Amino acid sequence: MEKTTRNKIVFFTGFTFLGIFALQVPLMKLVGSSVSFTLFDAFAPIAGAFLGSIPGVIAVLLMQGFHFVTQGMNFSDPATLIRLLPLAMAALYFSRKMPLNVIVPALAIIAFVAHPVGREVWYFSLFWTIPIVCYFFQERWLLARALGATFMAHSVGGALWMWFVPIPAAVWIGLIPVVIMERLLFAAGIAGAYLAVNNAFALLNKKLEIVYKFPVHARHLLASLREEPAR
């Protein structure tokens, strides 16, 4: 039991440091937007799939917390704290199907339209019906799982931003096309990162003769990496 726990701690630590590294890798910048897409945006949400729901959330918070500290960010600034939560919620959504995957975006919609500015642009919160719809398909389709995760993050960030960082209605309206582009990109990145890591872990399990086996999900493995059933 002690050895198993130690292996899990080592894996958790290694996965967390891998996420910190991913924060340093910019991938692209959306045209017409200040949004930069980093490897971390794709990597962080999949933490829950390999570490488990709560450990995945903790790992993402540690990754971001370490990054914020090393970057000298001001933790008294509400905007800094708001940035901590969304990707942690994405990791929670991506980890498995659970009621929170519906409850959180539903509460975000309520919180958004409860604000005077939110009532002016209530239709912006319709984006957050996406994770609710994806909830019913997330065990069937990987892209639904990834899309739900990225919009879960968006719902939490959007609701908090509405209340703690004043933004006029016109800005929210202008963000609509940007949200569509960035979230589709993020969803594709999350799905791609998950497939890459899952198959990389399976390859390591196959090639390395070690007692510890990395967690993998057989459904999303290449045929060559799937274990043959015992005869």
UniProtKB/TrEMBL annotation:
The chain crosses the membrane at residues 9-27, 42-63, 98-115, 121-138, 159-180, 186-204. The keyword Oxidoreductase does not apply. Keywords: Membrane, Transmembrane, Transmembrane helix. It comes from the Bacteria. The keyword Membrane applies. This is ECF transporter S component. It comes from Candidatus Kaiserbacteria bacterium GW2011_GWC2_49_12.
